[in-house]
DNA sequence: AACGTTGACTACAACGTTGTAGAAACCAGG
DNA sequence: CCTGGTTTCTACAACGTTGTAGTCAACGTT
């Protein structure tokens, strides 16, 4: 049923190694021999056994991408780009869903490295630098978080600056009671904390006070949590005239809650998100957001990983920044800006 | 750095095979020997080399899931469930993105089977039964399409009945000029065709004529295509009072286009989708849809694949149906039904 | 004609694991 | 004390591939 080098070799009348050489494009093979081997390969529909090749070479050609949840659009879009970028280098991507819990993430960070993958691109939610120390030296690239003095390469965007910029955008529209949705009691360095920092710093620059009552936590960043947080803000009587949601799904939930309350967006409350997901281009109203360059993030991550795998594993960790863009849309600027 | 059975064996003072036996839970090992081996395993942080194990056993513990695009919410949600269901059986899922093109899908269907995976769950867009004949016997489960007399197991939902049901829902609301968005010139059997069939059959039952002008094609089923198709329908002067979109992303695009035109949903035009994606619960207005039981689909697919891998590979292909539910929401029923 | 160099190919071992066969130690029943 | 069966463990080969070392012929140079 399934053929091996040996079968091809017998059919072509050469040694196994010669077939292997043909398969791997080794230069010194006579044209007629090569042709005979290729004919045999085609006739038997030979394809190499990757397990055996991996065992021999110590490489698998597979990298893993670990994200919290696949059906959060941001991660789905990111995954798409990572798969594409990896394919260009001839790699296959194994996608892992951590669920975002600390224990599960720890398992992925240490256990996934069971020799089956050459490297890991990891987008952690709960882990901190301390959790990432003991890694058997499997190359790893971290995404999205600034894990200070982390033990691995990482690709970041400047969350603080981006959050400041989008908050400034709201300030620039004349909004004065700007709420935030999505704060979390997470360790220093996580996205929630950084985006909160940017928000606070923009408020301070604008001479607006920081009001704890305007900051709504969200344990996870799903649409339902955004809607719940928005309802909570509205019912608590603080009456914001703008909301900065720490990601787009929260913002879509907030839009929905505002719609149900009968408030107009942006006239009564302006809404801004973060992530630049596709949904935001088609929501009613369309969503103002910070759009990180996901393609760039994916490509940088794959390249960093490639360098690690093929190059010096003991080189000091590198940190690369990916660009982002503020994309003003209807949810802050109205229909005809 | 990385330890092998041999290292553990030396440390515990036993043979490699005994360590292997401990690792694999073989029964006849003396308790004290087992303890010594386990101590050594822990001390060296030993983890088996899967490539070697795979080579020896002919199994990898990895199954592949091939979907057209990861950032189409339906597939992202499906992927999530497949990963979860597979994890319960101790399997890892390798996710592949085909792009939906026929050639790429053919490559996946034949090429992914490079000995690295034990089986494949495949959600094809363009392939037909004919493309799936020559598969080297790698177990495969097809999703979503009714590939008639196909060579593999598949999990389907009754697209025709579901489409008829949601069209009936629109008819029941008193709509008479019901448009459809998403038709494709695809081979017999693909989703687009089946959903169109259901739509036509419901119209016929209701005594409403079939009007070609009310059916808008969409080459792919993204939001932008739904918006474009809706605009096209509106500008062509046919004035529908309802639209059945062949999936939810098309419907979200259509909602957006209607909003831009100033038409009210559902008062002027009722909108229905298909897929039951999470977005539809939070859109403005919320989206009436056919929601297939994705968790069930995923579990059935994984179980079928498990049977195929562990059981009789030459058994005749099986077809299992997963249930779906009509979920009426604001886009057809209005705010307070 | 003898020499080294290159090209074309092959035999063999090794990657880390597990199945098979079997040896050694132990046990129970006569 | 022997017999037959079980338990506990081990040596060896094999899975399919590729790196290393090497053979042999053809070639160009002295």
Automatic annotation (TrEMBL), chains A, B:
SUPFAM superfamilies: lambda repressor-like DNA-binding domains, Periplasmic binding protein-like I. CDD domains: HTH_LacI (cd01392), PBP1_LacI_sugar_binding-like (cd06267). GO terms for molecular function: DNA-binding transcription factor activity; transcription cis-regulatory region binding. Residues 326-337 have a biased composition (Basic and acidic residues). Keywords: DNA-binding, Transcription, Transcription regulation. This is Transcriptional regulator, LacI family. It holds the Pfam family LacI. The keyword Transcription regulation applies. The keyword Transcription regulation applies. Residues 314-337 are annotated as: Disordered. InterPro entries: HTH_LacI, LacI/GalR-like_sensor, Lambda_DNA-bd_dom_sf, Peripla_BP_I. Residues 4-57 form the HTH lacI-type domain.
């Amino acid at each position: 049923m399934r053929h091996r080098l040996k079968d091809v070799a017998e059919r072509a009348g050469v040694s196994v190694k010669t077939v292997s050489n043909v398969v791997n494009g080794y230069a010194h093979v006579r044209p007629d021999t090569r042709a005979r081997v290729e004919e045999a390969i085609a006739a038997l529909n030979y394809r190499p056994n990757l397990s055996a090749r991996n065992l021999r070479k110590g490489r698998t050609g597979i990298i893993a991408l670990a994200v919290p949840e696949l059906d959060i659009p941001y991660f789905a879009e990111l995954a798409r780009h990572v798969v594409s970028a990896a394919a260009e280098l001839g790699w296959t991507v194994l996608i892992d869903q951590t669920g975002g819990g600390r224990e599960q993430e720890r398992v992925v960070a240490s256990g996934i490295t069971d020799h089956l993958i050459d490297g890991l691109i990891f987008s952690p939610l709960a882990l901190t630098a301390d959790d990432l120390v003991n890694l058997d030296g499997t190359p790893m690239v971290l995404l999205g978080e600034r894990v200070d003095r982390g033990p691995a390469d990482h690709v970041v965007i400047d969350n603080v600056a981006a959050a400041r910029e989008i908050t400034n955008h709201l300030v620039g529209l004349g909004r004065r009671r700007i709420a935030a949705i999505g704060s979390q009691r997470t360790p220093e360095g996580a996205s929630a904390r950084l985006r909160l920092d940017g928000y606070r710093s923009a408020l301070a620059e604008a001479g607006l006070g920081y009001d704890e009552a305007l900051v709504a936590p969200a344990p996870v960043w799903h649409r339902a949590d955004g809607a719940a947080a928005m309802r909570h803000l509205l019912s608590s009587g603080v009456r914001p005239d703008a909301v900065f949601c720490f990601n787009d799904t929260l913002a879509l939930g907030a839009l929905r809650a505002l719609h149900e309350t009968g408030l107009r967006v942006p006239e009564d409350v302006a809404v801004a998100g973060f992530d630049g997901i596709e949904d935001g281009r088609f929501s009613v109203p369309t969503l103002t957001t910070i759009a990180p360059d996901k393609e760039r993030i994916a490509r940088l991550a794959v390249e960093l990983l490639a360098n690690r795998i093929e190059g010096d594993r003991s080189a000091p960790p590198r940190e690369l920044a990916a660009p982002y863009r503020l994309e003003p849309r209807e949810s802050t600027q109205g229909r005809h800006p």
